[in-house]
Amino acid sequence: MKKIVCFLLSLCLLSFSVPAVYAEEQSSYSYDETTKISVTVPEYHSVTGELPDGVILYMDGNAVNEANVERLSSHTFTIGSTDENNRKIDKVYVNGEDVTDEITGEGYNVPSVYEDLFFTVTLGDEIVPGNLEFNSEIGENAPTLELTPEDIRAIEDAVLTDEDKESVKNGSQIGITLSVTDVGNSITDRERSLVNAFISDKFTPGEYLNIEILKTTDNVETYVTQLSNEIKLTLTIPEYLRAENRTFAMVRLHDGEATLLEDLDDSADTITFSSDKFSVYVLVYADAAVLPGQDISEPSVDFVGDVSSSTDDSDGANADRNSNNPTDTANTGDTAPVILLVLFLTVSAIILCLFGKKKEN
Fold first, then answer.
1. Which pLDDT belongs to residue 56?
2. What is the pTM of this model?
3. Which distant-in-sequence residues (6+ apart) come within 8 Å of 279 by Cβ?
4. Which has the closest alpha carbon to 164: 220, 123, 90?
5. For 171, left (φ over 0), alpha (ψ -120 to 50), or beta?
6. Which residue from 46, 287, 294, 331 has the least number of CB within 10 angstroms?
7. pLDDT digits (tens, 9 = 90+) for 304-322
């Protein structure tokens, strides 16, 4: 019996001692030690690049192959090409990121250099040698053209055929002249009647213009009336045609077909339109516009009208102005339910009075 008691007592002591030992072992681990990480911020960053032959990287106007710049300093980078074929710069990358669209007329601005800069430049396949010349001519009383370098390159690309580009590469001299001439005094009666019939009473003719593209290849002149793709042109609106709340458009007369070309810019002083055909154009205007989606009716004349306008109707504009006039009251018929209710109550009162008198009798 004593042995059994001793055995049970030993088991009890063992069961209490094991957790204590485990807890003591757990508490013996310590993670109080810390690790310090030191970072050295460089005072300078490098500027390098992988550039094709004939391409030069400029930093703040100075040509550089590689340079070191102070950290967080500001710089402007430009790319120059002396490629013998005058190929255009296609893409500019900085640290693998395409920044071509971020390049302005001044160049690529880096307001704060916080890392090494690595420039990569690619050239396009298009060859536009130096013996390709572009000119624009504005006739008397004609609106002026506003052309950017990008507009000129787009015109050159649309005018030149693959054969032209190969000829230029082989030494031929090609000139492109874009001219705008006022032909208001020489327009034929038939052309004038076609325009009036086409625009109906939606627009008013402003100026009749002849927009031409002349290509000269080794002194041989050719008028280009059809381009390989559309180009955008921006013309200034003559002062005498400008007015408040006036909208403009272009009507193109080409091979007996009239087309309405809408204004693509938001400026009241210019009109921008796209076209791939060049002949007679008419600058037209409207002082009131129509409901969106309403088209100009095609004229009953011997040409097809291609209308792509989204102007508003004058009646709609007048209705909008009238609806905002607090002194005007619209006769909409909303008082009809009130009149019917008054009439019903009056008839009911008469019937009740007659019924009451009859009951008294």
1. 87
2. 0.49
3. 210, 211, 212, 225, 252, 253, 254, 255
4. 220
5. left
6. 331
7. 444 333 334 434 333 343 3
